[in-house]
Amino acid sequence: LRPTTSLNMEYKVICADYYERVIDHLRGNFFADEPLNRAAGLCQQGCGNSELEHHSLATLEDQLSIMALDARKDSDNYGQIAGVVLNGVLLPGDTEKALDKLQFSCDKNYKKIFELLYRHSLQVDLFKCFNVERIFDVRILSVDARYRGQGIAKELVRRTELVARESDYHLLKADATGIFSQKILRSHGFEVFSEQLYAKYKDAEGQIILPVEAPHIKMQLLVKEL
């Protein structure tokens, strides 16, 4: 996908030169704000989380992620990252391996979040269901608070589909944990495949494991066939 400029933004695939800046963006805009992260108390605003950063970097290395850069040359924010979508490759057995590896995590809050995501994904075999050998996995969608309301997230999702098509993928998948990402993905033709109400996700004692604040009431596994 060639870099292009649209509505004062330049959109381009994220290369290694930008990895640290992308992680810094996520520390300030996603790690503390995402509904499950907030419910678990994963980290404070602006702070990092080593396991989530490792997960993000591993995704970036698949070279399928996209960022929006402020392209207004007369602005103090010129060149700053306004938003990112982190996309990765999902192969058969990857989620099972990730769940096994998660049992060795020392971060109980990170573990809570990803046990929900991985176990929900494993309720069905998407590879068999859609007869595909690999899945284009939309993992993180984040826009800097200063740039929200400008359609950046929608444009990142639109360009994600272009990258998937150019790379000859036939299925996109996303675990959308908040109402805003769910709406954006559905507006781009993603369909709800399955969902989990947070209020019904409980431990052995009947306690809600992740008390997510409204309006985020459920996670959705969404898919789009290409």
From TrEMBL:
CDD domains tied to this protein: NAT_SF
Tagged with keyword RNA-binding: no
Reactions accelerated catalytically: dopamine + (9Z)-octadecenoyl-CoA = N-(9Z-octadecanoyl)-dopamine + CoA + H(+); serotonin + octadecanoyl-CoA = N-octadecanoyl-serotonin + CoA + H(+); dopamine + acetyl-CoA = N-acetyldopamine + CoA + H(+); serotonin + (5Z,8Z,11Z,14Z)-eicosatetraenoyl-CoA = N-[(5Z,8Z,11Z,14Z)-eicosatetraenoyl]-serotonin + CoA + H(+)
Pathway: Aromatic compound metabolism; melatonin biosynthesis; melatonin from serotonin: step 1/2
The keyword Transferase belongs to this UniProt entry's keyword annotation: yes
Gene3D superfamilies in the record: 3.40.630.30
GO molecular function: aralkylamine N-acetyltransferase activity
Keywords: Acyltransferase, Transferase
Enzyme class: transferase
InterPro entries the record matches: Acyl_CoA_acyltransferase
EC number: 2.3.1.87
Similarity field: Belongs to the acetyltransferase family. AANAT subfamily.
Stated name of the protein: aralkylamine N-acetyltransferase
Source organism per UniProt: Drosophila rubida
